[in-house]
Amino acid sequence: MKSSLKLEISDQVAVLTLNNPQQLNAITLEMREELLKVLSDCEKSPEVRVIVLKGEGANFCSGSSINGMGNRTALETFDHMKKMIEVIKRIRNMEKIVISMVDGYAFGAGFSLAIAADMVYTSPEAKFGLAFNKIGLMPDCGLSYFLPRLVGPHKAKEWILHASIISAEEAKEYRIVNDIFPKEELYSVVMERAKSIAAGPFYANIMTKSIIDRSDRMNMEEVLEAERYAQTILQQTEDHREGINAFRNKVTPVFMGK
To answer: Which PANTHER family match (predicted)?
Structure first.
């Protein structure tokens, strides 16, 4: 039986590919289970420092599979959504850096999956869809949290209530995505950036991510204190000493994550 998820690891970068191209990489129950397990394994693995999420073929993810929609009981729906919520929380709360690589459709839960990551890069063909309103539903899987924080509540409500499809250019304009690259270059550019981060000072990276992710829940004084404690720890690391020595000798540092 074909796996719904592909995993490749090289140079401390794990590439997770949603593998359901016949349904535009719609998220099945099996895929949710695999995603949760593989993300957990990557979080624990010393061989992985950065995770790249992508879709097989010409699309990122068309959202949750519609199989069973409209026929579930309330309790079945409640339980059905639990695994996807756990996947989103795992991506968002992970110490390691997660990058979404979006080509083609990122609709519904696929939109949530993409913007739960730390960075989002797309091709010009990327499209972010909010079709919930058309089937009598509201956004889920964190979209009601992520989208207003990225684009503001007014624009988020406008897009959601109009069941909008957002182009790559508009997504970049509203800071949903970091950058857009030609389709034929997207994978190589994203991998280059992922490997560059993976080769960096691991603990500095995860502490930077942690403070930035918590900064909207802290005041300035709390952020300053968090920075002070983190910097005190980082100045005792071998990576810091390596960086200082490399700077003094005008050579490229080799960070070991220690």
So the answer is: EG:BACN32G11.4 PROTEIN, ENOYL-COA HYDRATASE
